[in-house]
Amino acid sequence: MQRFDFEDACIKCAICVTACPVYRVDQQFPGPKALGPDWYRRFQAGDDEAMDHVNDCTFCQLCEDACPVGVPIAHLIAEHKQHAPKSTRLMLRDYLLTHPQWLAMAPGLVKLPKPLGVPFGVSATTQWPSPSPIKRSYRQRKVQPDKNKPRVGIFVDCFTRGFDSETLTGAMAVLERLGFAPVALPAASHCCGAAAYASGLLGEAERTAEVTYRALRRGAAHLEAIVTLNATCDDTLRIEWPRYFGLELATPIVPFVEFVLDHASPGFFSQLRANHQDEVLYTHATCRSKVARGEGSLMSLIERASEQMPRILEINCCGAAGSYAFKSEHTEVAKALGRRASEVIDGPGIILTDSGTCAIHLEELTGHRTLHPARWMAAQLEHSAVLR
Amino acid sequence: MTGNAIVIGRGPAGLLGASLLRQRGYEVTVIADGQGTLAMWAGDFSFIRAPGAFETFPIQRSLTHWLGAFGDVVGLFANFGVALERFDEKVVARTVTATGNLRPTFLVPSWQYASLEPEDLIIVGVDGLADSIVEAQAANYRAQTGRQAIEVRLARPSGWDESWGAIRFASYLDTDAGLTWLRQELIKGLRSCPRDLAVIVPQIVGLERTTYLLGRLSEDAGRTVREFPLLSPSVGGVRIRDRWEQLLRRDGVHFISGHVVKVTPAATVTTADGRSFAGDYVLLATGGVLGGGARVTVDGAIIDELVNREIGQMHSINDLDRVGHDEIDCLGSGRVLAIGRALGGWNPNRDHNGGAMVVGSVRMALGMIEEDTRAAL
User: Fold this and answer.
1) What is the pTM of this model?
2) I want to staple B168 with a disulfide (CB 3.0 to 4.6 A). Which of A161, A270, B164, B320 is the partner?
C-alpha cells in the first residue's frame, strides 16, 4: 500500500459523486465514494474483495479535485483495481496497453487489422491514431541548439513520439520563436508510468517511472525547465512522481501552455492573431489538466493568441482517458462521454486540447479537427491553414 | 471600474462574487482547491428563525432590503436558466423537507415546492431511494400542519441497484428510459388519488432537463408536480452549480485549480505548487464544506481556514455550531475581503441561512470595493 495523506478522512459528503463523469453516463458504475474511500475502509478492516466495475474508473481524478478534505480518491480506486480479478488475456492486453512506450517505438502496429485485437479485448470500433508521418524528424535535425539561448527540455510523451510528431515540431518552433533552445527528451522512448497507474498496475507504474526518471535526469541537468505537452504526463511527472514514488527532478516541470503564457511578448501574440481564422476555437483542457492546473490557462492562452473569443468545450471528461477507450468493455462509456462534445458544438470549429489521445477521440466523435495548441500555434505563425 | 479580481473558492459565495465582479467589468480568475459546497445546498434562500430572524443577522438590514438583494440573485440565476420564485415581505412561504418539516423561505428554484399556507398534499416516495422515507415524511407533515398527506410509492426502475442515490436517479431521468419509467409509475400511483391536490416528488427529476420533465409530469398528472429537496449531495445544487459555472466560463471567467497557501494585503496569491497571481482585489470565499470557514483536522482541532489558526476542539458534530468568526477578517489593506460564511459571528450551521449569508456578505464586499475604487480616483 502506498503512503497517502488523508486516505481515511472521508466525511461522506459525496461531492465526489457529483463530479464523476462516468457516474453520470454508466448506471452500473458505483461511483468514486463507494469504490475509493468506502472500499478502503473495508479493506483496512481485512476485507480485500474487489467490487464489480472498479476498472470502469477512467482515473480522471476529478473526484479527487472535488473532495473538500483531500482524500486521494482516485488513487484509492487505483489500489482497489489491483484486487479486481482479471482473465489472462485481459491481463496481457492491459500489460501491453499500459506500456505505450513500446507502441511509440513501433506505431505501425496500429495499422494491423482491428479484428486481430478483438479476442484480447481491444475495442473494434474506437478510432486508433495514425503513426506520425514525419517520425523522428526532430532527431534528424542537424542544427545544434544555440548556446547563447536558454535551453529548455520538451518531454516527448509516448503518444507524441509515436503518433503526433507534428505537435513536437510545432512546440519546438514556438519555443524557438520565444528565444529558447528546445531539446527533446528523453532520447529513447520512455513512459511516465501514468497508463500503468490508471489501470491499477502500481508496481509497474513505479518501475516505469524509475527508468524514465533516470533517463530524464541525465538530459535535464542544464535545462531551465522541462516543458510538457500532455497534461496527464505533466501531472504525473510534477505531482505523482515525488508524492508516490519519491522521484523528484531538480528542473521545474511546466505545461507548454503556461510556459508560453509566462514567456511570450505581446508582439508574439499579435503575430499569431495576424492569421485570420474562420472556425470557432474551442478549448478543452483535459481532466488531468483541469485537476492539476485548471482550465483557465489554456483559455487565457487562446484568448491572447486569437482575434476571436475562444469557447470552452462544455464537457467534463471526453472518455478517451489514455488507453481506456481502446478497451472493448469501455467503448460505450467512452463514446457516451465524448458524444456530449458534439452536442455543444454548433458550427464549424477547431478543438484545441492538451492531450493526443483526447484529440483523436474528440475528432472521431465530433467530426471537428482537434489538435494540440502547440501545433495550432505553429501553423498560425507560418500563416498556414491547419489541414485535415 | 475595471481591473483584475481573484476569487478564492468556488462555492456559492465564490461564484456569486465572480458573477458580480464580472458584471462590473472585472477580469476575474477563480482559484479553487475543491468543488465547493453548492452540491450540498438545495438552492432555497431562507432565514429559518422566521419571522423577524433577519433582524438578528449580523449585517443589519431591513427585510425589504434583503428581498431587494434576493431580487438581484433572481436576475442572475435567470441568466443561466434557473427560475427563482420570490415571495414578498408580507408573507412567509414554506417549503417541505424530506422529513416532512416546513421550512420558511423567501426564494426557491421553480422546481421546488413551496406554499404560503400548508395544504393537503400527495407525497411521492420512491423504492430504492434511501433518502425518501415517505411514511415518516407524511406522518410528520400531518402532525406539523394538521393537513392531509397522501402517500404514494413508486416501484424502483428495472436497472436499479444499491449504488443508486439521488444523483444516479437524476441522471437516469435525463434519459428517455428514465422519463418513461417515472411517467408510468406516477400515473399508476396517482390513479386513485384526488385530482385537486399538489404532488411533491423527491428531488431526482433530472440534472439537465428538469423543467421539461416536470412539465411533462404535471401534464400527465393533471396537477402541479414539484420537488422536495433531499439530503446532500443535492441534485438542485448540482443543477445550479453546473449551469452557473458554465455561464461564468462563457463570460470569460478563468478557473484555476490550486491550493492557495499565501494571500498578501497587496492582493497577490500564491498556490502550493508555486504559481502566483496578482489582482486589484481578492475575495476569500473559503468558508468550506463544514461551514464557518472551519476545517476539522484528524486530531479534532477546528482550524479557521481563513487565517489558519486553531479556534477550538471538536468532540461531536454539534461543536461546529459554536464556531464562527467574531470579526470580519480582512488582511488590512481593504483589497482582500472575506465573503461567504466566514463573517461576523454568523453561523449558518446553526441557523440554516447560508444563502442569505452569501448574498449579504458578497454585496457588502462589492460595496467596499466600489468605495475603495472611488476613493482611489
Assistant:
1) 0.90
2) B164
